[in-house]
User: Fold these one by one.
Assistant:
Number 1:
Amino acid sequence: MKNESIWELPICSTPKLETDLDVDILIIGGGMAGMNTAYHLRGSKEKIVLIDRDTTSYGVTKNTTGKLTFLQEGIYPQIEDARGKEDAKEYFYSQKDAVRLAKNIILSNHIDCDLLELDSYLFASVDTKELKKEKKFLNHVNEKYQTHEKLPIPFPCVEAISVSGTYTFHPLKYLRALKEIILKSGITIYDHTKAIAIDKEDDGYLVHTNGGDIKAKKVVVATHYPFFVLPALLPLSLKLDKSYLLAANKEEEDVFTAVSTDAPYYTFRVDQNHFIFGGYSHNLATKLNYKQNHDEMMNYFKDHFQKDILCFWSTHDMTSKDHLPMIGALNEENPNLYIATAFHKWGMTNGILAGKVIADLILEKENKYAKLLKPDRLLTPKSLLNKIGDNGMIDMTYINTKINKEKDFYKNITFEECDGLPTATYTDETGVKHTVINRCPHLKCSLIFNELDKTWDCPCHGSRFTLDGELMQGPSVYDITFKKDR
Ligand SMILES: Cc1cc2nc3c(=O)[nH]c(=O)nc-3n(C[C@H](O)[C@H](O)[C@H](O)COP(=O)(O)OP(=O)(O)OC[C@H]3O[C@@H](n4cnc5c(N)ncnc54)[C@H](O)[C@@H]3O)c2cc1C
């Protein structure tokens, strides 16, 4: 059984940047959000460059379940609670439009990405309280849905609803095709080019990368978790949720996708090719024993299904304090610095939507969702309470992981101060020692050892590093490698 996502696909790699550049628009990050932004900007007269730290498409998008749906884990009542009915309605329409937009892009460009129209289910496995709220909301927006007593496959369910006009697709096949279209349009893509810092200048920004400095009039940061801390102190505005997934052999005739509304959270994608099961989401800063959480999910699956598991993986996504994505210009002081983040585990629709919204803003076109999603929107009292609660939890984890090194997730680890630095050494099963600096370069959080993936993970902001300290995932832009006598 492999510890990797089911979405593996070779994607043509483009050269690394090896010089300084002067461009009109720089897009940083080639995942769902960045690639869709480049797609919508193609054909404009501006000089546009996209850079990605890795090969495009190999970020969080590689770990998705790839559903294109507007029935999203009971999100509308949550937005209604945080921001009111009108904003919840607007978000609902934005997601319906995003599904339509995705379909249009795929069909009009003849993209072969296994697009399949499938009903989406939302179900309560124990408690119908949240499902009732979702039904009330759907009635309010006149969206038709069907009610069911059970799911198409045997699984604990007390009530379910389903909608049609939703899809599944292969996210990497989609992004692979987009890359070809973008390159053909004249936009240059540099893979293996990491943005390290961004400085504001009189007429734009100077972005420092590992291959050269890029001067740009406008910059789009589509790196999942924005890599800069200032301006805007984004870490105070984002909360991370981690989830566990597996893919198994598929036998059912029924094809559908589903997510649950109660805890623990379950997600299914059953289509012509895949049976993907997962969920068990938790705030990244809590339940730090990731192996234990993964084992719980695997055991639950084995108790309910007689299927061979092909592979498993885990991943995380961000949420804002009011559950709406943050898409658009960062703030009034930075009208030419755009971000696309906080997709709340719905970054297929929201990444596609982000591309259109940001391109429209850059090209000075009207976009009806720009106001709703603007990153510096005012927080409501309810969202402020969420902010205080979430940040309090992150602060507790920050302190706890600094002082408490006896927990399960530090098995086989020794800690010592070396050359004035806090180091951690993991001894692997062959006796080889792997030493890293146990301090995240992003905001100096202590890292915990992820026994499941054998990685060093930041429980506060999600940066991840290999056993020997190489950066795997931001917001950090630096490694934590340790060399004696440095
Ligand atoms: C369990 C789970 C299931 C999900 N299932 C669904 C689903 O079914 N449907 C749905 O709509 N959404 C789903 N999502 C959400 C979705 O997968 C994500 O929101 C989405 O993939 C995020 O896309 P992105 O472009 O923001 O980020 P990424 O795909 O991570 O793209 C960011 C890119 O930026 C690059 N990068 C990062 N830092 C730098 C840097 N410093 N310099 C240069 N490049 C950099 C990375 O290499 C990467 O290629 C799910 C999420 C989870 C956690």
Number 2:
Amino acid sequence: MAEEKIKISVSCASGVEKVTKSELKRLGYGDPPAILGGINFFARVSDVGRLNVFLRTADRVYIELAEFPAKTFDELYSGVTAIPFENYIPKDANIIVDGKCVKSTIYAVSASQSIIKKAIVTRLSDKYKVSFLPETGARYEIDFYIYHDVVTIKLNTSGAGLHKRGYRKKVWIAPIKETLASALILLSDYYKNPFLDPFCGSGTIPIEAALIATDTAPGMMRDFDFLHWKNAKDYKFDTVIEEAKDRIKRNNLPPIFASDIDNKAIKLAKEHAELSGVSDLIKFNVCPVDKIDIKEKNLTIVTNPPYGERVYDAADAKKCYEDLGFICKNREDWSEFIITSDKNFEKKFGKKADRKRKLYNSEKECDLYYFYRKIKENL
Ligand SMILES: C[S@@+](CC[C@H](N)C(=O)[O-])C[C@H]1O[C@@H](n2cnc3c(N)ncnc32)[C@H](O)[C@@H]1O
């Protein structure tokens, strides 16, 4: 018998929807339309595990439970009480409620949270015929979104955001989220040609590049909330991990170079690469950008340089952009994809970008500047 389809909602950073959509297409989920910050579509329950493990640029994977209009707390309460939570949530579940109210008559987030929690507890107590729910079991996070007086209720299957791959154990100055790093690489023209991140910090961009080049699923090393649920076997995690292992290809990959001026950054980046299983594919180097001496043809550079706002001030950032511009000068066979919040970046880099795309890095508005190679040597 064909498995029943459920509504899945995949969230992602704003500006990244197109990339997440292409990932879904490549994974065999058709061409669902993107909405701001996410994509909704129908899939099987068993796809939940696969989506969590394989998506590189998504933030979380949700099961959408209901959508209904509500302008009052009474309407909110009765709408939530009508949802068959008992199909998903056991009697001992540790129920967390989180969400947002945007442009709606109901605007109080914490009051909405309490009402939704009360409605869920009432529904489950009634269905399980108990007067008290101990909440000692697995975590079940219910997310609500009230937008223009329409309430959406979703079950978070991922738990912690999917950027938490499991390899980045320590923090560095202004690290980029793993999901955004992946999006930058997927937006670039990188396809198993030589690669460089000259401001690699804790190694996020080169590690994500190595995971992409080897077709290694980013979620193979982490935990998910759904794995602790009573129906965990429905998500077919073992089959997904088998598929993920089968897809890994590590042969004949051109080098991935990663450098940074700071030796502590490179030490950390090496530890992270080790944990992610790709350390043999990345050539790390302590090196200021102006001393980089790479002769590779058809290099793709994807990088997140200093923005001139924290440890490295505006003058340092300007010098970084000028130095990077200098090493890329006259390399018509190289491409560069650089994310920064500096609106005058192109002037300092010394070239006008072929394209720009607005993206948010930790809620800071940035642009990704695209400089495509003009000649392709045996690519
Ligand atoms: C925004 S951080 C990069 C963070 C990195 N993407 C990560 O996820 O950890 C910028 C990096 O540029 C490095 N940096 C600053 N000036 C540099 C220079 N002149 N040459 C090379 N690296 C430099 C800093 O040490 C820092 O690690």
